[in-house]
Design brief:
Largest sheet: 4 strands, antiparallel
Order of helices and strands: EHHHHHHHHHEEEEEEE
Number of helices: 9
Strand content: 15-25%
Strand order of the largest sheet: 1-4-8-2
Radius of gyration: 22 Å
Shape: globular
Number of strands: 8
């Protein structure tokens, strides 16, 4: 199965982008090759760009607090595992405290690192980090992989409260949705959303063997899916087949 996710709120769109970048950063930083670490820095700077939004930290703190108060309402419910509930509430508390204790925007300390910022200013220029442009960066790439990993871990640490909060909130959001089996009749699917409930994320799972790609759109009233298949001209074309898939709406 291939799982596709579509945000139904701009805030969730930002969270998904941060999660995507964070996972890529950790994968690249775990390797020892200098080229992997170059692209780890590229990803680090991308996270800083996304995290530069003035209201991002406030949104995360509000969401963490809202989730905590929602879950606290389940205390004493015999259908809920008390130990698991308390564990999640503790994680929300810890994430809130770690993010709240961080002064300013996420990655602010990195922005004050002149060496890193010299790389950031050149890294978006094609070939802008050649040895004759940034000899100090060229020398850094010749350090051992272990030393580079240690420095990357230190820089990544300043973003950890932010990315940990994003991972936790998205996990709780995903857990709120129950997959349902549906069919795209003639390659098309539409569903009206119930009133009085705000959905934030759509999750769609397709069998790899169908070789189709979903075009998803949605708002607070309706979600729509159109299935496409790449033709011999390498362009996507709408299909007319009936295709089953799994759909989950998370709130």
């Amino acid at each position: 199965m291939i799982l596709y996710e579509y945000p139904l709120h701009e805030r969730i769109r930002t969270y998904l982008r941060l999660e995507h970048l964070s996972l890529r950063l950790h994968q690249l930083a775990s390797r020892v090759d200098a080229l992997d670490h170059h692209f780890a820095l590229v990803t680090l700077f991308e996270i800083m760009d996304v995290a530069a939004r003035a209201d991002l930290k406030t949104d995360l703190l509000k969401d963490l607090d809202r989730q905590k108060h929602t879950l606290e309402g389940y205390r004493g419910n015999p259908a809920i595992a008390e130990a698991a509930l308390e564990q999640v509430i503790t994680e929300l508390d810890q994430s809130f405290e770690a993010l709240n204790a961080q002064p300013g925007k996420a990655g602010q300390g990195l922005a004050e690192n002149d060496w890193l910022m010299s790389i950031r200013s050149r890294i978006s220029i094609p070939g802008g980090t050649c040895e004759f442009d940034l000899p100090a960066y060229y020398a850094w790439q010749h350090k051992t992989g272990v030393l580079r990993q240690a420095e990357l871990a230190q820089w990544m640490g300043s973003l950890t409260p932010l990315t940990d909060a994003v991972h936790l909130l998205l996990k709780l959001l995903r857990d709120s949705g129950s997959p349902q089996k549906v069919i795209a009749n003639g390659g098309q699917f539409q569903q009206n959303l119930p009133q009085g409930r705000t959905f934030l994320l759509l999750r769609l799972a397709l069998d790899v063997g169908t070789e189709v790609v979903p075009e998803i759109s949605g708002n607070r009233l309706m979600v729509s899916v159109r299935l496409m298949r790449q033709g011999d001209d390498h362009r996507p074309h709408a299909i007319t087949d009936d295709v089953p898939f799994e759909l989950a709406l998370c709130s």
